[in-house]
Design goal:
By secondary structure, the chain is of the alpha/beta class. It is about 20% helix and about 25% strand. The strands form 3 sheets. The protein has a 7-stranded mixed β-sheet with strand order 3-2-1-6-9-11-12, with helices on one face. It is globular, with a radius of gyration of 15 Å.
Protein backbone atom coordinates (compact mmCIF):
# COMPACT_ATOMS: atom_id res chain seq x y z
CA UNK A 1 0.00 0.00 0.00
CA UNK A 2 1.18 3.53 -0.72
CA UNK A 3 2.31 5.75 2.15
CA UNK A 4 -0.02 8.37 3.60
CA UNK A 5 2.02 11.13 1.95
CA UNK A 6 1.84 9.44 -1.46
CA UNK A 7 -1.91 8.98 -1.05
CA UNK A 8 -2.36 12.61 0.00
CA UNK A 9 -0.52 13.78 -3.12
CA UNK A 10 -2.73 11.64 -5.35
CA UNK A 11 -6.01 12.64 -3.75
CA UNK A 12 -5.09 16.33 -3.75
CA UNK A 13 -4.13 16.17 -7.44
CA UNK A 14 -7.43 14.53 -8.32
CA UNK A 15 -9.32 17.20 -6.36
CA UNK A 16 -7.40 19.95 -8.10
CA UNK A 17 -8.54 18.50 -11.43
CA UNK A 18 -12.23 18.83 -10.53
CA UNK A 19 -14.01 21.60 -12.39
CA UNK A 20 -15.84 24.38 -10.57
CA UNK A 21 -19.06 22.89 -11.95
CA UNK A 22 -18.17 19.46 -10.48
CA UNK A 23 -17.49 21.01 -7.07
CA UNK A 24 -20.64 23.15 -7.15
CA UNK A 25 -22.80 20.16 -8.10
CA UNK A 26 -21.23 18.12 -5.29
CA UNK A 27 -21.90 20.92 -2.79
CA UNK A 28 -25.57 21.05 -3.78
CA UNK A 29 -25.91 17.28 -3.32
CA UNK A 30 -24.29 17.40 0.11
CA UNK A 31 -26.86 19.98 1.24
CA UNK A 32 -29.68 17.90 -0.30
CA UNK A 33 -28.59 14.81 1.67
CA UNK A 34 -29.09 16.64 4.98
CA UNK A 35 -32.84 16.03 4.56
CA UNK A 36 -32.26 12.26 4.79
CA UNK A 37 -29.63 12.32 7.52
CA UNK A 38 -29.59 9.20 9.70
CA UNK A 39 -28.16 11.35 12.51
CA UNK A 40 -30.50 13.82 14.17
CA UNK A 41 -30.07 17.37 12.88
CA UNK A 42 -32.56 19.72 14.54
CA UNK A 43 -32.80 22.50 17.12
CA UNK A 44 -31.67 20.16 19.92
CA UNK A 45 -28.38 19.33 18.19
CA UNK A 46 -24.94 20.92 18.31
CA UNK A 47 -22.90 20.28 15.17
CA UNK A 48 -19.17 20.76 14.73
CA UNK A 49 -18.45 21.48 11.06
CA UNK A 50 -15.88 23.25 8.89
CA UNK A 51 -15.57 25.82 6.13
CA UNK A 52 -14.12 24.05 3.09
CA UNK A 53 -10.86 25.30 1.65
CA UNK A 54 -9.82 24.99 -1.99
CA UNK A 55 -11.48 21.98 -3.60
CA UNK A 56 -12.65 20.41 -0.31
CA UNK A 57 -16.21 19.11 -0.53
CA UNK A 58 -18.78 21.25 1.23
CA UNK A 59 -19.88 24.87 1.23
CA UNK A 60 -21.03 27.73 3.38
CA UNK A 61 -24.51 26.83 2.07
CA UNK A 62 -24.10 23.49 3.93
CA UNK A 63 -23.46 25.42 7.17
CA UNK A 64 -26.45 27.67 6.48
CA UNK A 65 -28.64 24.61 5.85
CA UNK A 66 -27.62 23.19 9.24
CA UNK A 67 -28.55 26.49 10.89
CA UNK A 68 -31.87 26.56 9.02
CA UNK A 69 -32.63 23.16 10.57
CA UNK A 70 -32.09 24.80 13.96
CA UNK A 71 -28.70 23.26 14.74
CA UNK A 72 -26.12 25.13 16.77
CA UNK A 73 -23.05 25.09 14.49
CA UNK A 74 -19.50 25.27 15.82
CA UNK A 75 -16.60 26.01 13.48
CA UNK A 76 -12.88 25.59 14.15
CA UNK A 77 -10.26 28.26 14.56
CA UNK A 78 -6.66 27.12 14.01
CA UNK A 79 -4.47 28.05 16.99
CA UNK A 80 -1.14 29.79 16.59
CA UNK A 81 2.02 27.75 17.03
CA UNK A 82 2.59 24.09 16.22
CA UNK A 83 -0.37 21.75 15.49
CA UNK A 84 -2.66 21.54 18.53
CA UNK A 85 -6.37 21.00 19.23
CA UNK A 86 -8.65 23.43 17.39
CA UNK A 87 -10.46 26.25 19.14
CA UNK A 88 -14.22 26.57 18.38
CA UNK A 89 -16.58 29.47 17.68
CA UNK A 90 -20.33 29.46 17.11
CA UNK A 91 -21.25 30.12 13.46
CA UNK A 92 -23.95 32.76 13.05
CA UNK A 93 -23.83 33.84 9.40
CA UNK A 94 -21.54 33.88 6.39
CA UNK A 95 -20.64 37.52 7.01
CA UNK A 96 -19.14 36.43 10.36
CA UNK A 97 -16.32 34.62 8.53
CA UNK A 98 -12.89 36.17 7.95
CA UNK A 99 -9.50 34.91 6.77
CA UNK A 100 -7.50 33.34 9.57
CA UNK A 101 -4.37 31.27 9.82
CA UNK A 102 -3.29 29.54 6.58
CA UNK A 103 -5.84 31.75 4.76
CA UNK A 104 -8.74 29.66 6.07
CA UNK A 105 -12.16 31.22 6.55
CA UNK A 106 -12.88 31.21 10.28
CA UNK A 107 -15.68 32.60 12.43
CA UNK A 108 -14.90 35.89 14.15
CA UNK A 109 -17.10 35.47 17.24
CA UNK A 110 -16.14 34.72 20.82
CA UNK A 111 -13.80 31.75 21.15
CA UNK A 112 -15.30 28.93 23.18
CA UNK A 113 -12.10 26.96 23.79
CA UNK A 114 -10.82 23.58 22.68
CA UNK A 115 -13.29 21.68 24.86
CA UNK A 116 -16.36 23.24 23.17
CA UNK A 117 -16.33 20.43 20.60
CA UNK A 118 -17.22 18.04 23.45
CA UNK A 119 -20.77 19.47 23.31
CA UNK A 120 -21.18 18.36 19.69
CA UNK A 121 -23.73 15.66 18.94
CA UNK A 122 -22.50 15.40 15.34
CA UNK A 123 -19.12 16.35 13.88
CA UNK A 124 -18.70 16.78 10.14
CA UNK A 125 -14.98 16.25 9.55
CA UNK A 126 -12.96 17.15 6.46
CA UNK A 127 -10.85 14.42 4.88
CA UNK A 128 -8.88 13.62 1.76
CA UNK A 129 -10.21 10.06 1.81
CA UNK A 130 -12.21 7.73 4.04
CA UNK A 131 -11.92 3.95 4.11
CA UNK A 132 -15.01 1.78 4.47
CA UNK A 133 -13.42 0.65 7.74
CA UNK A 134 -13.70 4.21 9.13
CA UNK A 135 -10.05 5.19 8.68
CA UNK A 136 -9.76 8.88 7.75
CA UNK A 137 -6.89 10.35 5.74
CA UNK A 138 -6.46 14.01 6.65
CA UNK A 139 -3.93 16.58 5.52
CA UNK A 140 -1.32 15.27 7.96
CA UNK A 141 -0.93 17.91 10.68
CA UNK A 142 -3.26 16.17 13.15
CA UNK A 143 -5.41 19.17 14.13
CA UNK A 144 -8.63 17.17 13.80
CA UNK A 145 -7.38 13.95 15.39
CA UNK A 146 -6.24 15.99 18.42
CA UNK A 147 -9.59 17.79 18.55
CA UNK A 148 -12.09 14.94 18.16
CA UNK A 149 -10.34 12.16 20.09
CA UNK A 150 -12.69 10.97 22.79
CA UNK A 151 -15.71 13.12 21.95
CA UNK A 152 -19.12 11.41 21.98
CA UNK A 153 -20.35 12.94 18.70
CA UNK A 154 -21.36 10.92 15.66
CA UNK A 155 -18.29 11.44 13.43
CA UNK A 156 -19.12 11.99 9.76
CA UNK A 157 -16.27 12.37 7.27
CA UNK A 158 -17.12 14.30 4.10
CA UNK A 159 -15.43 13.29 0.84
CA UNK A 160 -16.12 13.03 -2.88
CA UNK A 161 -17.46 9.70 -4.12
CA UNK A 162 -14.09 8.53 -5.51
CA UNK A 163 -12.46 9.27 -2.12
CA UNK A 164 -14.46 6.56 -0.33
CA UNK A 165 -12.05 3.66 -0.65
CA UNK A 166 -11.70 0.11 0.64
CA UNK A 167 -8.56 0.59 2.73
CA UNK A 168 -6.13 3.23 3.99
CA UNK A 169 -3.03 3.05 6.18
CA UNK A 170 -3.69 3.92 9.81
CA UNK A 171 -1.76 4.97 12.87
CA UNK A 172 -2.71 4.54 16.54
CA UNK A 173 -3.65 8.24 16.88
CA UNK A 174 -6.07 8.25 13.91
CA UNK A 175 -9.67 8.77 15.06
CA UNK A 176 -12.06 6.54 13.05
CA UNK A 177 -15.23 7.89 11.46
CA UNK A 178 -18.57 6.21 12.06
CA UNK A 179 -20.14 7.65 8.91
CA UNK A 180 -19.18 9.09 5.57
CA UNK A 181 -21.15 11.62 3.51
CA UNK A 182 -20.54 11.73 -0.24
CA UNK A 183 -22.35 13.75 -2.93
CA UNK A 184 -23.45 10.68 -4.88
CA UNK A 185 -24.05 8.23 -2.05
CA UNK A 186 -25.32 10.38 0.79
CA UNK A 187 -24.75 9.05 4.30
CA UNK A 188 -23.11 5.62 4.64
CA UNK A 189 -22.41 3.93 7.96
CA UNK A 190 -18.89 2.56 8.16
CA UNK A 191 -17.66 -0.75 9.62
Amino acid sequence: MASKDELRTGFMARRAALTVEDRDRASIWLVTHLASSPVLLDDTVTVAAYVPVGAEPGSVAFLDALRERGCTVLLPVVPSGPPAPLDWVRYDARDSLARGRFGLLEPTGRRLGIDAVSAADVAFVPALAIARTGVRLGRGAGYYDRSIAGIRAALVGIVYDHELVDDLPTDAYDVPMGWVLTPGGGFTQLR
